[in-house]
Amino acid sequence: MTPQTAAEGDRLRLYVAKQEGIDVRTITEVRVLRKSIDARQRNIAVNLKLRVYIGEEPQESAFIPIDYPCVAGARRVVVVGEGPAGLFAALRLIELGLCPVVVERGKDVRARKRDIASIPRLQKVDPESNYCFGEGGAGAYSDGKLYTRSKKRGNVDRILNIFCQHGAPLSILSDAHPHIGTDKLPRVIESMRNTIISAGGEVHHQTRMDALLLDGGKRVEGIAATNLATGKTVEFRGPVILATGHSARDVYGYLHSAGVALEAKGIAVGVRLEHPSELIDKIQYHNPNGRGRYLPAAEYSFVTQVEGRGVYSFCMCPGGFVIPAATSHGQVVVNGMSPASRAGRWSNSGMVVETRPADIEGDGPLKVMRWQERLERLCWTQAGMRQAAPAQRMMDFVSGKLSYDLPRSSYAPGLVSSPLHFWLPDEISVRLRRGFEEFGRKSRGFLTNEAVLMAIETRTSAPVRIRRDAATLMHIGVEGLFPCGEGAGYAGGIVSAAIDGERCAEMCLQYINA
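User: That's the sequence. What structure does it adopt?
Assistant: Structure tokens below.
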């Protein structure tokens, strides 16, 4: 149907009545089960799968609520990290009758927001409270996209249901590319935390894990942590679900020094590419007038191969913002986010190049992480040792020219004109340039100097994998330790991390009952 028919309830009811040959007055509700946009042709179509109620009121809820029993006094399980993997692990533990003790190095989601807001003004990053560390993890303030291709890993609909139970919009149950929005997701995360606490679980903010408590190096008994507000050392006992996220480099360093088996993992590295959202709308919807009243801000997805490595768009944020995502002083890292409305003036995405451990010199499981760190420090120096982003117009980058001026941008800390084509590693810059040329041929108008590249996008996934048994999800050398989610190298986004968190909780119960 047309976008207008899909968007307006009265028109939709009339459309359904005509299609089915029924009296529109007998339709009591039309519920959208699936929604997608077909923009392949000049005339844009919206595809809907509907459930129509005729002469009756719906008896069932749009989502299936889960009952969380009281687990106060039950067997305790320590969950390190309160990102999506940790939150969903904790909620699943409660369902299974176990008491989660969640330990999060960062602040609660409200206090964290204040620290994030100060980055452009102070030009520095709090190493414990930033876009990566804190309640909700890296996903809390970086868009809230819930699309995943990882359906083989678990029940995606169940994860979306749990989000809805905690306040997410019902539209995520039907949209082809569900999205909560960085302005709404924090309240959902806060509701999840309240569920954990009301069921008898514990949540400890500003509490950083420093070490595992190991019995003879072969079995974990809990963790030692520091309360960052008081400086006191505390211990938490129980099996450990380790869900620290992909930026907890100190955790990787500690695990390596403690002899916990790790391996280097490939990542993708590149830039954030930002266009005016109006331009992307015109390109994607084949309309010089843009998207009009009834279509959302347009998305795009590009992928190609250059010299044996993938070059692709990543985490596309229509109508969004580019944000400073470093986790300590002396780094510049960029990422993207979108509010629920996606009504911003700019649209951005990561444009990245696949990088494998074999592409990087050196040995050891931390070599990709060290290389990642070096690039972020290099970017910091190119930015004048502040949180501004080195930047270059898109066509100038492809042509190998310095940009003598830069367009306005959503990146609040500011941009610094820099020859990215010159100082980025050749294996990155050459492949990006060729990828951009191909994307420009596929999508006329995409390769333009109205677009700007910002460096550097490095936090696409974990540079380390914490090794675990495929059947039990337990670490291959440490009994009672369950490496979990994106930080352990087993997920790639909010939903897949949530699924992995639930699976680790289930395996933890099996371990306890064995």
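The chain is about 30% helix and 25% strand.
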